[in-house]
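Lecture 7 notes: from sequence to structure.
We start with the chain below.
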Amino acid sequence: MTNDPTFDQLVRLSARIGCLSFGGPAGQIALMHREIVEERRWVSEEQYLHALNLCHLLPGPEAQQLAIWIGWKLHGLKGGLAAGLLFVIPGALVILALSVLYGFAAHLGWFSALFLGIKAAVLAVVVQALLRVAGRALNTRFKSVIAALAFAALFAFSAPFPLVLLVAAMLGMAATILRPDWLALKPVGMAHDLGGRPWRQSVSAIAGFGVLWAMPMALIAVTLPKGHVLWQIGVFFSKLAVVTFGGAYAVLAYMAQQAVENHHWLSAREMADGLGLAETTPGPLIMVTQFVGYLAAFREPEPFTPLVGGLIGALLTTWVTFVPCFLWIFTLAPWMERLERSPWLKGALAAITAAVVGVIANLSLWFALYVLFNAGQKVSLGPLHFEAPLLASLDWRATVLAIIAGLLIFGARWNIIRVLAIGAAGGLLLGMVP
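Predicted structure tokens for the same chain:
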């Protein structure tokens, strides 16, 4: 038995969740479950889990999309807009302010020491996320093989991220037909009449939010020179919104590779700093995209000042990253039950989830390399191409802080915010040591 909240009640709770949603997607999904399913009973357990499965099927941040779906389920379009915007705005404002501070103060010694501690703590958080996802996703040998192959493809062969997930999806669909037991899929429930097909809602959502998505890009195209950094930012993060399945950490792995190695908007260490910022703020972890967009435009601002260019880059990044979330949910939510009954989609999703374990493992290794070591080297052995650390460049401060963070998370079971605070304080303290 569920309760029907008023729109004002939905807005107040959405604002509360937006301000308290620390801890990455797992913590945010758990927070929404407690507040909306357990305490207020606005949505049933079954409805919540079905919606979560749909959000896992979609590209982009699943927690953000789940918040939009909850609002849509309770109060239609205006509910989805309110819940989705309030989920992201608090964190967006905080990380925008921190990005501005970072752009001007990153060269200061105390600021670098502070971020050294935060990054070391985040390394332990990323490893924790890897173990949690692996524990849930790898319940068959076939899934473990997919995860291992995904890791090898990304780390050793520098395979494109979208290609890795596409191959995983194809393997999942094939296994659904030939050996469904390899994926441990639950049987699809009994079919029943689901009523008419809501084409009008879906077409309206595609048209409306498609126009909103494209508006800033059209403005850039007619006002700025061809190839301007803002155009590059808009195109890259629009593409990111379409091709990145598998949750926030999977998105981060692809974004780090492209932003650092292909576009050269920031260094790998700065990318690690951005991930530390995102972990310390409320809202979706994917808000780190705003940090990347800010630095890219801050450093190539013409014809604007660095601050104005950075602010425009950050706002553009946020727009093209999150408008698609509303498009996906408002287009597909009316079809949710039909999607839930597709065994092929279930198989593809199960395989993609397994591949994401390999993606997060690759992110963890990449992150460890740039947090714990001050230098690395490119290694090529035939078809293998990967980066290895220079052991002599091991940073003892980062190593000590990472070990302490790991003990606090896995041993003492402290929450993420407390561990990040200890890491920041430890970074400042060890920064004084010659």
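Points to note: Strands lie at 376-381, 384-389. The radius of gyration is 22 Å.
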